[in-house]
Backbone:
């Protein structure tokens, strides 16, 4: 398989996504004018503590505010002002990181467990515990990675080993840990002399950082048609990735297979310079259009109807032309439900839908079929980078799921990008 991160810019709108063999797995959209706060680190001032909602309101930046959820375990954030070590009070200055952007009337959300993320490790300043990703199963490999991380462990922070670290050379792992610890020291030195509300670290745009979030073994190339973004990528990834400006051949019917991963590099960064537009080469118009449609057709003739609402995402599985009058209807409906389950797991990741998800599958007669379907759906959800869990089937036959929230869903990203472009045109 060939895996690529495609980043295309057109009139200030950046559409980007993770592609596997020419088909999108994840899609995103934003404009250069959009400034996400997610990942930013602040020396925030506590405006007031609201015990009734187990939270506090913080002041950040120039007249900016955010919401801070008080940890249930009573663990205190890193305090930059003296005193009050056992509890949070108004006027305290604390180190926080933004985890969610503002949504409608809701303020951005901040977390005291500030993390410094690399490709192989994460340094956590709030939670001092260390560990290895559960997805790394080999005992010997877990012990090897734990031993390497232990050499850099300090009382001030924890070290979490990411899945990407599995099988990585020790030299690379040590290099990143040294860089992360140096970054921590620089951050704390800056924080010690900064005024309240100061921005201590600005996270690069997600189209730049996404490459580090994707599994290292499953990313062969990052391709962009923007010289400016190309330079940003080179500066961000540095020597980790090779770079070049060889254009992809526009006549290739399978563009994802046009270039193979360099044998002496982790990943290749390519500036696309062909006259044929990159967005047309990868059929971005088509993929974004279908990813925003309510109805998804299945090869069997059935369909999914996906309805994101304010409170949850509702998905209905329709049998289409297949009726109960057909022979072996139970078997047919079970197979259609399996087909639908695989597509639902794919669509949730593609559209970045999250929160509570309710699925109305085609009715099945036997308990065994229902249990097998739930198990199959759970296995498909394990392919997702975001935590995605199948809970159970209700008495009404609805399947309950949850998917962790992060970035806005794709339909909101596209809507916001259009709004910003319209405002810019009206200026």
Residues:
């Amino acid at each position: 398989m060939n895996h690529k991160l495609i980043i295309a810019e057109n009139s200030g709108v950046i559409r980007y996504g993770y592609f596997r063999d020419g088909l999108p797995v994840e899609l995103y959209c934003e404009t250069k004018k959009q400034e996400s706060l997610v990942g930013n680190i602040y020396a925030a001032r506590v405006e007031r503590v609201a015990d009734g909602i187990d939270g506090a309101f913080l002041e950040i930046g120039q007249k900016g505010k955010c919401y801070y959820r008080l940890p249930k375990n009573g663990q205190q954030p890193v305090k930059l002002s003296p005193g009050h070590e056992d509890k949070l009070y108004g006027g305290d200055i604390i180190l926080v990181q933004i985890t969610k952007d503002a949504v409608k009337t809701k303020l951005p959300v901040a977390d005291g467990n500030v993390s410094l993320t690399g490709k192989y490790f994460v340094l956590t300043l709030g939670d001092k515990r260390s560990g290895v990703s559960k997805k790394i199963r080999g005992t010997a490999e877990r012990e090897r990675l734990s031993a390497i991380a232990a050499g850099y462990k300090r009382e001030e922070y924890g070290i979490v080993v990411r899945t990407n670290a599995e099988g990585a050379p020790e030299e690379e792992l040590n290099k990143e840990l040294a860089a992360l610890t140096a970054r921590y020291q620089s951050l704390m030195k800056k924080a010690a002399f900064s005024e309240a509300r100061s921005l201590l670290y600005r996270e690069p745009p997600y189209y730049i950082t996404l490459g580090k979030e994707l599994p290292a073994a499953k990313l062969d190339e990052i391709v962009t048609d923007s010289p400016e973004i190309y330079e940003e990528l080179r500066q961000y990834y540095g020597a980790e990735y090779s770079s070049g400006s060889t254009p992809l051949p526009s006549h290739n019917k399978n563009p994802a297979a046009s270039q193979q991963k360099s044998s002496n590099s982790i990943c290749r960064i390519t500036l696309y310079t062909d006259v044929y537009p990159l967005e047309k080469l990868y059929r971005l118009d088509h993929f974004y259009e279908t990813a925003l449609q309510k109805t998804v057709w299945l090869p069997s003739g059935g369909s999914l109807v996906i309805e994101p609402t304010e409170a949850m995402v509702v998905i209905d599985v329709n049998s289409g032309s297949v009726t109960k009058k057909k022979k072996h209807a139970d078997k047919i409906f079970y197979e259609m439900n399996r087909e639908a389950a695989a597509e639902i797991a794919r669509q949730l990741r593609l559209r970045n839908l999250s929160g509570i998800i309710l699925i109305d599958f085609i009715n099945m007669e036997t308990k065994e079929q229902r249990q097998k379907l739930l198990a199959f759906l759970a296995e498909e959800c394990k392919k997702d980078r975001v935590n995605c869990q199948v809970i159970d089937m209700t008495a009404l036959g609805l399947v309950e799921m949850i998917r962790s929230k992060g970035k806005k869903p794709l339909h909101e990203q596209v809507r916001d990008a259009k709004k910003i472009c319209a405002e810019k045109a009206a200026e």
Notes: Residues 40 and 202 are 5 Å apart (CA to CA). The longest strand covers residues 41-50.
